[in-house]
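Q: what sequence does this backbone want?
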């Protein structure tokens, strides 16, 4: 995936999510996917520990980029236009029959769930103390989000891997925005935009009964 490699910068993620939501409260898929490319770099910078998420996210972002560049790209300008188009044309498979390509709705739902975990994790890093255990922050965030959709084996594997996470300040240094204090300040600026995108998506998918797509 183009742009998936390279150093992570929280500024890049902030800039993308700042431009995600229009005055009409629509979520633009271009900035949304750019924000995810930045978050993928964050996951990659942490090594194999988060590969269980990053590999799936990379695949889902690629699917959505293909939709946004495809023949029906005008239908994939925003999250709202995508949902309207796919539902009107019977493209959302509520049974996930094999052989059918993943719809944009199903693909974004997977990204949406992962975004919730990252949102909670980053908020935990922002509000934590210097000696806060990142393993606890990450496990709590995971249990409140992605764990619901994973098998018992995956949950146990993930929580075991979280035990070897580096200290909080190491995560803040990875943000590449200066001192840990500066990273905390920028997280405080970025997270409301991420939360806003998450909230709009949650409401839209709930309205159309899309939150439990297989």
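A:
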């Amino acid at each position: 995936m183009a742009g998936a490699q390279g150093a992570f910068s929280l500024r890049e993620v902030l800039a993308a999510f700042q431009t995600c939501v229009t005055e009409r409260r629509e979520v633009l898929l271009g900035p949304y996917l750019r924000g995810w490319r930045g978050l993928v770099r964050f996951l990659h910078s942490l090594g194999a520990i988060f590969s269980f998420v990053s590999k799936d996210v990379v695949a889902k972002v690629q699917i959505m980029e293909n939709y946004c560049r495809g023949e029906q790209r005008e239908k994939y300008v925003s999250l709202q236009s995508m949902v309207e188009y796919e539902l009107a044309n019977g493209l959302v498979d509520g049974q996930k029959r094999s052989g059918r390509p993943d719809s944009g709705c199903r693909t974004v739902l997977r990204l949406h769930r992962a975004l919730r975990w990252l949102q909670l994790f980053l908020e935990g890093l922002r509000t934590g103390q210097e000696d806060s255990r990142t393993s606890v922050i990450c496990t709590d965030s995971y249990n409140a989000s992605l764990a619901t959709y994973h098998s018992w084996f995956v949950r146990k594997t993930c929580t075991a891997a979280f035990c070897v996470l580096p200290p909080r300040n190491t995560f803040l240094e990875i943000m590449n925005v200066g001192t840990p204090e500066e990273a905390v300040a920028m997280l405080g600026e970025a997270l409301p935009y991420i939360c806003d995108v998450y909230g709009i998506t949650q409401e839209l998918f709930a309205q159309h009964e899309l939150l439990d797509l297989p």
